[in-house]
Amino acid sequence: MSSARNLSTALRRVRIPRSYNPTRPLILNLPSFTSKRTFSHTSGVGAASTKEIKYTTNAYPNLNRNPSFAEITEEDVKFFKDLLGAQSAVIDGVTTDAADDIEPFNSDWMRKYRGHTTLVLKPQNVDEVSKVLKYCNERKLAVVPQGGNTGLVGGSIPVFDEIVINTGRMNKIRSFDETSGVLVADAGVILEVADQYLAEREHLFPLDLGAKGSCHIGGNVATNAGGLRLLRYGSLHGNVLGLEAVLADGTVVDSLSTMRKNNTGYDLKQLFVGSEGTIGIVTGVSILCPPRPKAVNVAYFGVENYEKLTRAYKEAKGQLSEILSAFELMDGRTQQLVHQTTGNRYPLEGEYPFYCLVETSGSNAEHDMAKLEAFLENIMGEGIVADGVLAQDETQFQSIWRWREGITEALNHLGGTYKYDVSIPLPDLYQLVEDCRERLTQMGLVGDDESKPVHSVVGYGHMGDSNLHLNVAVRQYTKEVEKAIEPWVYKWIQKRYGSISAEHGLGLAKKEFIGYTQNETMVKLMKQLKDLYDPNGIMNPYKYI
Amino acid sequence: MSSARNLSTALRRVRIPRSYNPTRPLILNLPSFTSKRTFSHTSGVGAASTKEIKYTTNAYPNLNRNPSFAEITEEDVKFFKDLLGAQSAVIDGVTTDAADDIEPFNSDWMRKYRGHTTLVLKPQNVDEVSKVLKYCNERKLAVVPQGGNTGLVGGSIPVFDEIVINTGRMNKIRSFDETSGVLVADAGVILEVADQYLAEREHLFPLDLGAKGSCHIGGNVATNAGGLRLLRYGSLHGNVLGLEAVLADGTVVDSLSTMRKNNTGYDLKQLFVGSEGTIGIVTGVSILCPPRPKAVNVAYFGVENYEKLTRAYKEAKGQLSEILSAFELMDGRTQQLVHQTTGNRYPLEGEYPFYCLVETSGSNAEHDMAKLEAFLENIMGEGIVADGVLAQDETQFQSIWRWREGITEALNHLGGTYKYDVSIPLPDLYQLVEDCRERLTQMGLVGDDESKPVHSVVGYGHMGDSNLHLNVAVRQYTKEVEKAIEPWVYKWIQKRYGSISAEHGLGLAKKEFIGYTQNETMVKLMKQLKDLYDPNGIMNPYKYI
């Protein structure tokens, strides 16, 4: 507590006055804040903590195991053991009692999904993945590709007895070119590891998200992860230059180009970006990485209403322009939750209904600070924001980011969370949170009273990408709450031409709701592709489209 | 000539001395240099100038008309006239003598390709395109989608009697959101028109290329155009947020999302980006446009060798970082050609084997100039570049860009040009030009003597994207020269894991060479997609894969 207080005092010292005076610029050579979501896949912890997780088959009683899938036999296990060799490559719950070892692969960190698999395979290279899939396809054994298992929609968790194919042992950096900035790496490289490797070479992985300490870059590509700095560095559809992947029948899609421009036929690799393991397994990635910014600054503001927040965003976009690297929205409730969980004192003295975090990343600290000053003078002077602080060193930088990054963890302390990760045109973005809160309150579901299922309805997210995280924190998951929110929330988004899944994908959670964003023709065309690449339907069944 | 001299004198006045002294920054609100390639589709000019263009069927005698395609009848023409209504929507060479009117749609600006079509259709919206394609598919009438017809690989020109479906009448801006920067527009909007519309709203189309005065944004998307500033704004795979397109059977793919993040199923629109009209016709585009830079600067340098040029690029990337918007390479010969064509005096006093053009675009003129100064001091001081000039006003800005943009036109004056638009890892990028020149010289094909078929072998391009334009300027197109270059050039690129087509696509010119960049599996998978979306093969036949 005392260190938190000290920090808070330090922050207050640099409170930005109405008549803003420039202070020294913050120079960070390696801006990398600690990851919040790190997950242990060791047996003890996982097994102990998963006891109370409901099986997905119970939560979704209408799901039936596809009878055309074979069941895993001892011969299958023997085949995989012979093929993969290393003991660590096969976790065999078929012929041995390995339930504890398997459990972490059978469930998710949100404790919402739990499968019945008895076999986990960890191939080490594309050839092994190809042989595994070829065998599974011929035998009609269903599989679930799994990276760091950090998803939010149950996409990487088996439902029945699908074999988990985990990318954890494919973890080599293959090459990096310092002139072009192109990195080629195995799919199972952890995002933070890749970024640290690049940091040593003055480059940056063009993706950053809370789960970076656990998630795999192959999983990032397979789910088209967006994260904190898409605003600045763009989407994986633009940055991924090449892919190596394996189709259901074992066909190796070798398209690991390192060229930024390559117009020779359909850009097939794009189909894997965001396909959530339903047409193949990504085994290697070639990605364009920008030079690491030499200066990074972060500021935190209190804002009186949503209209002013959108004005602040417009000003940031116009004035910070090429150095703006994040514009994050947090509502007052999320900050109260972080405060309650961490015990940290608030960065600002008063409390506000909205907060935003503005980050800049540039190549010249002095220039960036001058741009920030002009921006601060403008938004403070015009009364667009009510109060703010600017980080003065790396500790403060980390501390401010914790008020944004700590939200997920703070919500976890409350029990469960219904998470909706959606895109909505900016003018209406936060209205969804208000409307949802009002709806659930009117239905008598929200309250401080322990008997009420809903603890709070909060909103935060990547405002610069029109991406809202609507979170309904519950004391326990109940059908009553779920039915009060769904499909109401999806209809609300559909009316505004938004997307029911901005960056977290469809998985199992949103499978049945795709029609609220995609029309019938699009879904039909998608199913056609699925049938083309996976005619037996063995890849990540029961999910996606 | 006198104005050119004055300009040149002005340029010399701002020559950057070894001890560089900052001068006033250049502020351009609307950086837009005149397009070099504008094409008239009016009858007279086109018909007169196309007389000597060889029919593609003569140039490619092995191509046979697909006998499963129907021939256009009077009934077909009547159907289309009834459907499209407007007289300008159908150019009918079937029942009337409209050869002169049709000719511009039958041939390309490079005068390399010429088709035999007798019918040009210009539908005005997606419904009309859908009805046209549905009819053609049922009747097995082959079609060629055509935008501004500015391509370099014969992709938009019929070979036999394929019906041309031109997007020219679909030319409306549908919407623009000033906060998000998302533009939605018809496919037939001319790139420069779109950019001017955005300029008035302080935004920028994230694509710029020489043909901007004629090319259509739908064609840009269908060919995945790269252009001058991909280095800064990224590829269309990242910037296109949504598409509206029509498949061969008339199915409307309505995927015009304006959301930056939308992870709801396979990103099907990506298949259309770079598909060159072989699976469908793009009718509408939703695209993310950045704020228009408030300051744009351009500098031009003479460099003594290629190794120093790569060092200059590395320095530009590191020091100019987020404001670097173009790094263009021009070899000495290209600049001689521009000089000969325009009569303009060289920007620099001495002659150098290499030149580069460095452009910055940022939001603060003073900061940009300071970064440029530091960069100039460094590369001049270290002797990385030998001499340079920095534009001081918009006239000089345009003038410097003309030394890069004028290359295509200068080459056109010499006769024909074999154009190879390729990606090669940076260290080897220019070696291809040297090797090609040596090869053709040793074969006795190059010389000032009019009897030699090859006038010169030159190289230029987007160095920041590892994208080289190898151009072999010939007095006439001959099989002898073609055979001396191809497939040698493709094998050379294959050995270095480059791409045989960086940004100009495959079309007819590179169809048979795809195997030098894509392996057999990839080509097989692409053909599978083509069969899926266009089972009758009516979409842009004889080309692409």
From TrEMBL, chains A, B:
It catalyses: (R)-lactate + 2 Fe(III)-[cytochrome c] = 2 Fe(II)-[cytochrome c] + pyruvate + 2 H(+); (R)-malate + A = oxaloacetate + AH2. Residues 113-292 form the FAD-binding PCMH-type domain. It comes from the Eukaryota. It is an enzyme of class 1 (oxidoreductase). Keywords: FAD, Flavoprotein, Metal-binding, Mitochondrion, Oxidoreductase, Transit peptide, Zinc. Belongs to the FAD-binding oxidoreductase/transferase type 4 family. This is D-2-hydroxyglutarate dehydrogenase, mitochondrial. The lineage of its organism: Eukaryota, Fungi, Dikarya, Ascomycota, Pezizomycotina.
